[in-house]
Amino acid sequence: MRAGRLFAGVIAVTSCLMPLAGRPPSASALARKSPGIEDPYQGSADATAAGARIFRRECSHCHGNEGKGIGKAPDLSAVVRQPPGELFRLITDGSLRKGMPSFAHLPEQRRWQLVTFLLRNRFPD
Known about the structure:
Blueprint: H1 2-21, H2 27-33, H3 45-63, H4 76-79, H5 84-93, H6 108-121
């Protein structure tokens, strides 16, 4: 009797998880695994403007309005030469070793808008 209940429990759990197995990964999950993923908002003026607002609110106090860096925060001219997926990963995960906090609290769309702004702006040397 006990084995029958255990088997029924395994079947119930498996049937609940099966629909999740076929779900495609989010852009966030893909960017974490593949820095080569492209920016979904590339070329969008609206996304660039939204990214600029996010940059001023979330990033400029460390990187400055021109992206030149303040104190230990790096100049962004070198950082923005990375592929979009790598920038997204860096914004999402941060780099505590280098003093950069994670911005995973921002919705995925906002993080991509920030990437769009950074790549479009390029912060020249």
